[in-house]
Amino acid sequence: MEPESQQRWEGKVSAKLKTATKEQAWPLVKDFFNLHKRFPSLATCHGVHGSNGEPGCIRFCAGSSIPSSSNGADTVSWSNERLVAVDDLDLTLKYQMVENNLGFRSYESTIRVLDDGEGCMLEWCFKVEPVVGLVLEELVGKYRVGLQAMAHKMEEEIESLAMLDYKCEEIMWQGEDGSRLWSNWGRFSYGVCDCQRLMFEIIAFITKRYIKKYFAGGCGWVGWTAAAAGGAMVRWGGVLRRSLEWESIELAM
């Protein structure tokens, strides 16, 4: 028989981002499947159901600073968490724990991004039934430390992305036989695409262009192989998190 529900604990913590606006911070908060990238005390986080950032999706989190309720001292804490609601106008995200080994029952959280002068504020509220082995003040303290660390990581990420926020002029490449590659680059921002696509096209074009001098036909696979290698180098270089808003690109052989 399930134990009777108790009056739930409630807690609220906040942390300030001094160098980021709420518009910059919100996409990172909404990145539901990648909490571990911005929450240092979390070992891993990945999606197990649905699309990232869409209500109903579920993520798996493991290795938090909150100990598991299991008897084994070396047991890794984990939880499955469902995204309940996302409000892009109010910049609010709500989720629930559906399974965990933390001893958490009837757990739900709300994270908000609030305007705060030149910067913004993260606010994290939670509700949970009393947890065996913990006191509310201790749990709130863990959330406070975690959210402050998260805010710091988000500031670092936003600052690094802002360095690539620029507008490029038209780029032209002209071959001896009139072959050309040109592109009006858009500006880098915080979207879901990345510059790997552009690198892929450039390497494929140039490789195919010069190999044609030595091999007659059937060389397309060489260009695509080289392009894939170039794309892998871009990924290895950590550029994938930047995004590119395309204006136009033309390839002519």
UniProtKB/TrEMBL annotation:
It comes from the Eukaryota. InterPro entries: LFS, Polyketide_cyclase/dehydratase, START-like_dom_sf. Pfam families: Polyketide_cyc2. One of its GO terms (molecular function) is protein phosphatase inhibitor activity. This is Lachrymatory factor synthase. It comes from Psophocarpus tetragonolobus.
